[in-house]
């Protein structure tokens, strides 16, 4: 297992809240906008049962350990703090919580809720702004406005949050955007955001955007450079290819550095901790395969099937995770981080003492190092910041060497 000296938690708990005020046309997460209060109450009670199940199932250690908690969605910020308090209490009985995040949507946030969230234990807010540019927001089907986003940041700040991460989408066709992405980040910083998570628009098959051509790779590459430079100038540290912040992000580190996490709630994925029998952990998801294939726009399906209910709740273990799969996943995520891959770690996991030499002798990697695209520093090999957007190309090169 990779060591993460800056944080105490070695396990994350992700809880999926699949309710949204409306469906955004680019989104392929498991969610619904058709629900009643009864559905919500039933869902939270099932979520609580699933949490009990997992807290019971995973191995206990004698000493209370640390964990990170993340409520994602969907739109968890649609609901009052009292929905979350009992779930957090259950987790606190079992773990010290090192970080507690709530995903929120500027359209539906309510000022008074921020102090309630803080009082039940949340210490990190993510805000799904996606943009401050009216034309970009319109194309993305987002119904909030620039001022709503800036007000939300102020509400969260005033309530006492100092870790406010704003989600952005870039890489739309040039003619759509009327506000430069770097100017957006400057405004968010001035309003009090502590960081941004910026993802290039990707057109997913199972969405209402399936046949649209709003994304542009070339523009994504040039906007990525603007994002990098602006974040650097503001003191937002690059935590991972798409994440920049003045604060640490302990929960996301769990994913990026391959640590186990419990995924709870319809459509959530998890990675159970390694055991003697399963040295690379067990990946699983909650819910039937068909929840992944709901038709775009038909967002009632997950409730008509009642797939979130405990009576139908089932864990679908994915086929045994092999060492090769583990290594490929790790190379993919580690090359997105500033620390990159530790060569001594790689030698140990592959049980191949010459793997470092083989990597450094590879013609493409060698040229990458000469051109400054890949950096070799002590025991680490990592991608230069500007090269991270082309990370997938390098991932395949590294993976070809460990096959
Ligand atoms: S992008 Fe967020 S708010 Fe929009 S449908 Fe997806 S989960 Fe819901």
From TrEMBL:
<dbReference type="InterPro" id="IPR006638">
    <property type="entry name" value="Elp3/MiaA/NifB-like_rSAM"/>
</dbReference>
<dbReference type="InterPro" id="IPR058240">
    <property type="entry name" value="rSAM_sf"/>
</dbReference>
<protein>
    <submittedName>
        <fullName>Coproporphyrinogen III oxidase</fullName>
    </submittedName>
</protein>
<dbReference type="GO" id="GO:0006779">
    <property type="term" value="P:porphyrin-containing compound biosynthetic process"/>
</dbReference>
<keyword id="KW-0411">Iron-sulfur</keyword>
<dbReference type="GO" id="GO:0046872">
    <property type="term" value="F:metal ion binding"/>
</dbReference>
<keyword id="KW-0949">S-adenosyl-L-methionine</keyword>
<dbReference type="GO" id="GO:0005737">
    <property type="term" value="C:cytoplasm"/>
</dbReference>
<keyword id="KW-0408">Iron</keyword>
<feature type="domain" description="Radical SAM core">
    <location>
        <begin position="5"/>
        <end position="237"/>
    </location>
</feature>
<dbReference type="Pfam" id="PF04055">
    <property type="entry name" value="Radical_SAM"/>
</dbReference>
<keyword id="KW-0479">Metal-binding</keyword>
<dbReference type="GO" id="GO:0003824">
    <property type="term" value="F:catalytic activity"/>
</dbReference>
<dbReference type="InterPro" id="IPR034505">
    <property type="entry name" value="Coproporphyrinogen-III_oxidase"/>
</dbReference>
<dbReference type="InterPro" id="IPR013785">
    <property type="entry name" value="Aldolase_TIM"/>
</dbReference>
<dbReference type="GO" id="GO:0051539">
    <property type="term" value="F:4 iron, 4 sulfur cluster binding"/>
</dbReference>
<dbReference type="InterPro" id="IPR007197">
    <property type="entry name" value="rSAM"/>
</dbReference>
